[in-house]
Design brief:
With about 425 residues, this protein is α+β, with helices and mostly antiparallel strands. Helices cover about 20% and strands about 30% of the residues. The strands form five sheets. A five-stranded mixed beta sheet has the order 5-4-13-8-9. Strands 6, 7, 10, 11 and 12 form a five-stranded antiparallel beta sheet that branches. Strand 1 and strand 2 form a beta hairpin. The radius of gyration is 25 Å and the shape is globular. It starts with a helix and ends with a strand. The protein binds the ligand Nc1nc2c(c(=O)[nH]1)N[C@H]1C(S)=C(S)[C@@H](COP(=O)(O)O)O[C@H]1N2 and molybdenum atom. Molybdenum atom binds next to loops.
Length: about 425
């Protein structure tokens, strides 16, 4: 009997909640919508449970996945489904994955070594257990490929940039655990005159990249864990370089060598692939920090709004320069901007979630967000980006130019029928 009474009370509360529901959501009778629980079956199952998997898997009703950028191409990327995530942490299986053509190496951590050499007094070869004995830190930071947001020509094709996953899925955010470079390098005795750190990976192509020593020592880490468990093979198992806020390319996966020197490597990634080369002499290379950036994840490309009414617009903002200071929203095609609300925690060089209550009147419009970092740097619109680089409207949209570090505000068009589509290149 008590059970029945409780159930009735619960339903009463449920009805009260239904009363609070936002306009447009029908409040159905809770009694008629709640499924009947099969108590007898449940008890039988509890007494005789099937073996749960020892390493957990998600519900079979959850189906979101990474999406390939260029299926079948050796240089490809799997993009994070930002529109399906909540909060600021990317689950490890959904962290984006960039391939430069090498297969993911299978590394036995017991055989893995990290060599630290070059302009140091005491070069060392460290095992994974040597590294894990050192004092470690855990920090939440985003990682982002500088080629994302339409950096590469194929990413600007309309058919490849319909969703938030396709436009901005080359960024993820995780809690990384490992040893600060400052701790590691103190032990080897960096020599006077050393000014660069070159990291190298263990895959067959031996990806490498340079970073000014001072910048690396400031916040850089060698990390072996992501969101509480070992880094996954695609993310650099068993060890990767993590340079908070710095373009993805320099965050070396499968890290096997740190070379201390007085000059950068000038390898293909630094002077060709992740570089804007212009024939008018205004080129750009050796970029570090990712700029203030953001994307609305709801409503975003390919989603469908059921009708006019109140919506909680939400999305992610981040900046390699430090903290997100403000996020602003425009719901009128970048004519006016209003502050969105930042959701705690707001962390340095981490994804920051924002919210913006918006009453859609049902008329066609364009919505977009812009990130302003703690220093006042404002994420530009596409038109402002073109002005900044003194290029015409065709430069980004219609040519084959490579343009890493493209971070223009992402406009989403809401049609009168509620259909959401990408308005960047219209
Ligand atoms: N060893 C190695 N490290 C690498 C790369 C690589 O090809 N090999 N790619 C870089 C690039 S371009 C990016 S954007 C990031 C991607 O990291 P993720 O695949 O873990 O997301 O790793 C960087 N580190
Ligand atoms: Mo990248």
């Amino acid at each position: 009997m008590a059970c029945k009474k409780e159930r009735r009370q619960f339903l009463k509360r449920g009805a009260a909640l239904a009363g609070l529901a936002i306009a447009g959501v029908k409040s159905a009778s809770a009694e008629s919508t709640l499924p009947t629980l099969q108590f007898e079956t449940d008890i039988a199952a509890a007494l005789n449970p099937p073996n749960p998997p020892l390493y957990g898997v998600r519900s079979r009703f959850e189906t979101t996945t990474r999406a390939p950028a260029e299926p079948g191409k050796p240089f490809h990327a799997n993009r994070t489904p930002l529109q399906d995530l909540t909060g600021i942490i990317t689950p490890n299986p959904l962290h984006f994955y960039i391939s430069h053509g090498s297969p993911v190496p299978e590394i036995n951590p017991q055989e893995h070594r990290l060599l630290i050499h070059g302009m140091v007094d005491r070069p060392v070869v460290l095992t994974m257990s040597d590294i894990k004995r050192l004092p470690f830190v855990s920090r939440i930071h985003f990682l982002q490929c500088a080629g994302q947001n339409y950096g590469m020509p194929y990413q600007r094709k309309p058919e490849a940039t319909k969703t938030a996953q396709e436009t901005h899925g080359h960024t993820s955010c995780a809690e990384w655990t490992g040893v600060p470079l400052a701790t590691l390098l103190k032990d080897v005795g960096v020599q006077k005159g050393a000014s660069w750190l070159v990291g190298e990976g263990a895959e067959w192509k031996k990806h490498a990249a340079s970073i000014p020593l001072e910048k690396a020592m400031d916040e850089g880490m060698v990390v072996y864990a992501q969101n509480g468990e070992a880094i996954r093979p695609e993310q650099g198992y068993p060890l990767r370089l993590l340079l908070p806020g710095v373009e993805g390319m320099r965050n070396i996966r499968w890290l096997r060598r740190l070379y201390i020197t007085d000059r950068p490597t000038m390898n293909e990634w630094e002077i060709r692939t992740y570089v804007m080369l212009r024939m008018d002499g205004k080129s750009r290379w050796y970029a570090w920090d990712m700029e203030p950036n953001s994307v609305i994840t709801f409503p975003s490309g390919e989603q469908q709004l059921p009708g006019p009414g109140l919506y909680n617009v939400t999305g992610l903002a981040w900046t390699g320069t430090g903290l997100v200071g403000r996020v602003q929203m425009s719901t009128d095609g970048a004519r006016s901007w209003n502050d969105a609300k930042l959701q705690e925690p707001v962390l340095r060089k981490a994804h920051t979630r924002f919210h913006f209550p918006w009453k859609w009147d049902g008329k066609e419009t364009v919505i977009q967000s812009r990130c302003i970092d703690e220093w006042g740097n404002v994420q530009p619109t596409r038109a402002e980006t073109e002005k900044m680089w003194n290029v015409g409207p065709d430069y980004f949209g219609k040519t084959d130019n490579v343009f890493p570090h493209f971070y223009a505000s992402q406009p989403w068009r809401i049609s009168a029928s509620g259909k959401v589509s990408n308005a960047m290149w219209e």
